[in-house]
Amino acid sequence: xxxxxxxxxxxxxxxxxxxxxxxxxxxxxxxxxxxxxxxxxxxxxxxxxxxxxxxxxxxxxxxxxxxxxxxxxxxxxxxxxxxxxxxxxxxxxxxxxxxxxxxxxxxxxxxxxxxxxxxxxxxxxxxxxxxxxxxxxxxxxxxx
Length: 144
Description:
The protein has two domains: 9-67; 70-144, no CATH class. The protein is built from six helices and four strands. It has helices at residues 21-30, 38-48, 52-62, 91-99, 108-118, 122-132; strands at 36-37, 66-67, 105-107, 135-137. It is elongated and about 45 Å long.
């Protein structure tokens, strides 16, 4: 179930590296025509007890796009991203974000952790970051 894409993401990995067949089959069975939603990739990782990055590598290997980032940062049509800046950011949320910055960036896994700790949706954290001018990096699936 390969999709045509502008970039061959498999080239970011060593040419001799191959994902396990079980993981390839699980990914192929859940992929959609447009690609694989981030949430589905995380379900596969949980079910097979592998790191999300291994599912991301498998998607790259198979030429399947990651779509519908749970932070709203990419994979949506017609716009790439759907996250909008928050109209205001709660001071406790801003503090939590700033405490976890790596340089000037917040890692994806930290955005998820903040959401869980504060009882927020993941996109609320990314919306706060948009308002604060903070870039989210290090996608757990390896997309960015």
